[in-house]
């Protein structure tokens, strides 16, 4: 191509005026970063005035001229600063920077606002490794515990990369593989916490992260890694800017797509694993910090450029961690704050900030148009075959669910039971199993249908009922009744869970509405409130009787234990009402899953239909909570599996997804009742453990 044209910025002008825009941009970038750095310094100074001793800002300033006054035990201000407060502040800053930069890399590489350091299951792998070591009584020195977390995180990331087909795999595939692996590892961790309650009592709190440090040694070892990795991330800035245009456009402009993804992912993994090693799995910061930075870019446009946005996200992450920790210690006191995991406060603060910013600003920059999972259209013959096979499997699994348990029965026993002629011991067994099987069938179908509705409405392959805050609100309501209300039984807990779920959805939808419904805003606010409710649940649990935690945790993990027909009936009624709506809305769901403009062009009342679809999903999920507790994964995996089997048309996806959800939950419940009988594993944990490999199989089949 003839070199006859130049860009405006490169064109020579008199007096060197072509450099003025670049100089202005550089000054704006420097000003933004310096301003954020000053905020971090101020926040860190305030943070160091909070502690269990009486040392305040005056004593800390006075220390600059000496060691400062000593207390009755001879402890000087310098001892307090260097032994406790400075290490805690340094850990908070390093963890915030590491997670903020890692989150910025993940979201830019994936072009998805849901991407975070948890995408590659690094946090989940670290938590699982440490829990396994504690549960099985493996003796390791104290200094090696951080190494266990580091190795667990790296192995989890390697597993996800292998499942997805390498770091050069498509971003959607990478996120889905990471999500499935993370859920499976979290389920494994929860199972160990329940089965080995005595050995792992303290790990429930550690699982939310802690900034408590014994000195500066750990921070000093991690600081060089964080600095070098951040610099390497900044060096990828130009490539990441071009990737925001799309893979094809970036490739035309000379960006090596696979190498860029591989480099960015490895840098993010190292940063996340370092943060976990230093302070445990502190969640949400890696999601919140880059989103806040991108949302702020509307006010400070220079933040759109990755060379500024990456370090800015790190500084915002440090600010979130430090301010959250200091605010908690200032409100409830340093002594009481010791028992509260740092991750709880960072999550609460980050959730509030994220919701406020998402309310004010309409989009999230480069993540505004997340890529959807690939789907195809299959023939009617394949749909019929899949439907018939699944129907047979659902009926067969329900039959096995009735027969299986601590004592196996025969099909003749079921026939006698139906005729009221069974022996008392058999009648007693089936009276307990039948409502459990029915609860799993109906709740699984309801969760799958709710997930189908949510994914179509939000146009995001990672969306599920939890994105509406439903599961978080349900868990919080139930935990409040169990831990804070004396005499609260199963009925009260179930009612509180349903009420909490519906209130949570009402909050999410109300806060998301601003002259219309923007799916990005809905997703971001839903995530914020979901994590906020979960943090409050953790806060209540860690301050409650630790010996009550396993029982509550079992319900939060999803279980049909003790369920009767009273809990099953509402779910059945909701399904009877929702299935005809799914048939009526089949065309609207297809249109909503495309974009915001197409429904309007063809005459569909977009906002009214979306509200009706989402409120139906919320009711289905909330009533499912009453039947099986808080069960995740079904609403995520069943719609994906259905699309892989029968294509993307919702007239086919909805019924197939419902049968897949019912099958998955019934099989999980049966396995949970029989594997280690008479002890039981919650069905929700089994769902994740057996559902994740199947989800991985679907990803492998669809590999290009």
CATH superfamily of the largest domain: ABC transporter involved in vitamin B12 uptake, BtuC
Which term fits the overall shape?
globular
Helix content: over 70%
**Low-confidence sequence ranges:** 1-18, 363-374
Give the tally of structural domains.
2
Structure description:
By secondary structure, the protein is mainly α. The protein folds into two domains: 305 residues, Orthogonal Bundle (ABC transporter involved in vitamin B12 uptake, BtuC), CATH 1.10.3470.10; 322 residues, Orthogonal Bundle (ABC transporter involved in vitamin B12 uptake, BtuC). The protein is 71% helix and 0% strand. The protein contains 29 helices and no strands. It is globular and about 80 Å long. The two termini are 34 Å apart.
Features of this protein?
704 residues; mainly alpha; ABC transporter involved in vitamin B12 uptake, BtuC; 2 domains; 29 helices; globular; disordered N terminus
What's a quick, concise take on this entry?
This protein is an all-alpha fold and 704 residues long. 71% of the residues lie in helices and 0% in strands. It has 29 helices and no strands.
Helix/strand layout:
Elements: H1 19-47, H2 57-62, H3 77-110, H4 122-135, H5 145-164, H6 171-195, H7 203-206, H8 217-235, H9 237-243, H10 247-252, H11 257-279, H12 285-296, H13 306-332, H14 334-337, H15 342-360, H16 380-403, H17 411-418, H18 424-458, H19 470-484, H20 490-512, H21 519-543, H22 549-556, H23 565-584, H24 586-592, H25 597-601, H26 606-628, H27 634-646, H28 650-674, H29 683-701
Helix pairs in contact: 1-13, 3-8, 3-11, 3-12, 3-13, 4-5, 4-6, 5-6, 5-11, 6-29, 8-11, 8-13, 12-13, 12-15, 13-15, 15-21, 16-18, 16-28, 18-23, 18-26, 18-27, 18-28, 19-20, 19-21, 20-21, 20-26, 23-26, 27-28, 27-29, 28-29
